[in-house]
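User: I've been trying to design a sequence by hand for this structure and keep getting stuck. Would you show me what you'd pick, starting by listing the structure so we're on the same page?

Assistant: Good idea, let's start from the same input. This is the structure you sent:
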């Protein structure tokens, strides 16, 4: 794709997402009380930009965990955050209740299968079952390692699938068709993606986070994303 098309695609995406970043930050502080004395982890926080946006105070106890080592270098060098390099299992390498707060934004839907299985699993059922098992492991780790948490994920039945920007019925197509369409249209569509996503429902989130309140984030009067919050 040309540089011009890439620029337009990125501009559209940033404008769309900024509004929801602001709303999500407001929801975070509406439901959770945090201070500079709290040990806070952004799980799947990539380069630390989300945590820097979320937390305005200075602290020695701000952590970013991710599987991308190069992104963690940015989190460390640009923002001064402590960094944790993860494997793909979802294991949080700290003792019980180590963190006062774990923040996890648009990550758990990607905690699915090994990267080498993304394109080889052809069944929706098999992908869903393997993915949900790993998501359950991650949810248990978040609950174990934190006193409070804020875990957001796109809602499965929102009118637009947030990773592809396709109509939501796309997720019910056979997996082989989904993979082929994503590969083809990612070259031309306004938003590129990878078929590594297992979207969740309200019932799924209640299973994963039984000690949390499940908040439904709205857009156009419809549920856009789900947020599990333990206060």
């Amino acid at each position: 794709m040309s540089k011009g098309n890439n620029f337009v695609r990125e501009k559209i995406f940033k404008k769309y997402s900024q509004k929801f970043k602001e709303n999500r930050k407001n929801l975070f502080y509406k439901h959770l009380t945090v201070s500079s004395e709290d040990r806070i982890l952004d799980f799947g926080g990539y380069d630390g930009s989300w945590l820097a946006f979320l937390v305005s105070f200075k602290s020695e106890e701000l952590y970013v965990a991710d599987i991308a080592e190069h992104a963690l270098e940015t989190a460390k060098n640009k923002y001064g955050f402590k960094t944790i390099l993860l494997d793909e299992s979802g294991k949080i390498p700290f003792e019980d209740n180590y963190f006062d707060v774990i923040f996890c934004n648009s990550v758990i839907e990607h905690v699915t299968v090994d990267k080498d299985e993304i394109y080889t699993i052809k069944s929706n059922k098999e992908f869903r079952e393997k993915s949900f098992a790993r998501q359950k492991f991650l949810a248990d780790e978040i609950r174990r390692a934190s006193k409070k948490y804020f875990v957001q994920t796109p809602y499965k039945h929102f009118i637009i699938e947030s990773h592809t920007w396709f109509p939501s019925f796309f997720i019910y197509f056979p997996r082989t068709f989904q993979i082929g369409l994503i590969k083809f249209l990612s070259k031309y569509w306004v938003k590129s993606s990878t078929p590594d996503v297992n979207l969740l429902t309200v019932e799924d989130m209640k299973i994963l986070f039984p000690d949390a309140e499940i908040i439904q984030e709205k857009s156009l009067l419809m549920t856009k994303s789900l947020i599990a919050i333990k206060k």
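That's my pick for every position. To get oriented when you compare it with your attempt: The helical segments are 3-31, 49-54, 69-79, 124-145, 175-185, 202-208. The first strand starts at residue 40 and ends at 43.
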